[in-house]
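Q: Convert this sequence to structure tokens.
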Amino acid sequence: MRLYLPATLDELDALLRAGTPLAAPRRAHAVTPALAALLPDEDEEGVEFAAQLMAADDALVLLAARPGAPGLRLVVTVEVPDDAVRAGAPGDEDTGDEAASLVSLTSSVALDDVVCAHVDEPAARDEVALALDGDDAALDALAERDLLWYDVSELDRIPR
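A:
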């Protein structure tokens, strides 16, 4: 199953340099029946993009909890077995206001599971910082920014 994992660049660095897997359980996003039902006029690529955008929103939440991490949103696209995924938020996180794409990754992710990554361009760093401080205009600006695509072979070249 293809998942879009919100992550931070320090987590990616640990995966690349030390082989430290992306830990689970964790929030992830996928093309779920609920998401597809919300976007009936979108093709598969459009629904996948929507799931990726929701993961980017969660990446901002992760950055708020990890002030030492480089301040760019990161979404890591992975392929995992279906039995490594369950519906809904991990644990008791469910707030009742969850994204239709939300799933839980139940097992850790190794580098071999990574397909690609999407990350903010370095110029977005100031907007990310302002968004983390609660600036609504910065949040809106981030929503308009496209994340840059990096193949798995290029992950070590992502600007930090």
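The chain has five helices and seven strands.
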